[in-house]
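G., the chain you wanted modeled:
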Amino acid sequence: MLRVRLIKPKRFEALTFTRSDLVRIGAKAIETVTQRCARGQNVNDRASKPLSASYRAKKIALGQPGIRNEMFSGSMLGALTVVEADQNHVTVGFTRQAELVKASKNQDRDPFFGLSKGDEAKVVYFAERLLLNKSRR
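Predicted structure as tokens:
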């Protein structure tokens, strides 16, 4: 004997990111890059190249760590912001041309700008948590 049960269909809504979500994800990316740089790590999650002896001495004399952490004045990494965001993507960049020039020169010396594997894992986890929280509403 064949049994058939009728089940009322449930409507599923696709969960997507809003512009606001992507701005938050971009802010998380900036936070992770800044924290990595503060530890003196480059975009490959490895120790950054050592500073020249004179620049290292100058930083130490000013009470700063003698490592390449992209934070001599704080203005370059402080100029990082979300420059564009919509439902499909987010772009992080610099708000001031002078900081972009400094970043380009530092990038040539030892790549720091971008998401390392560790940064990416943190940002993806953050994004997953955003979607999970949306699904619980």
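The radius of gyration is 22 Å.

Shout if anything looks off.
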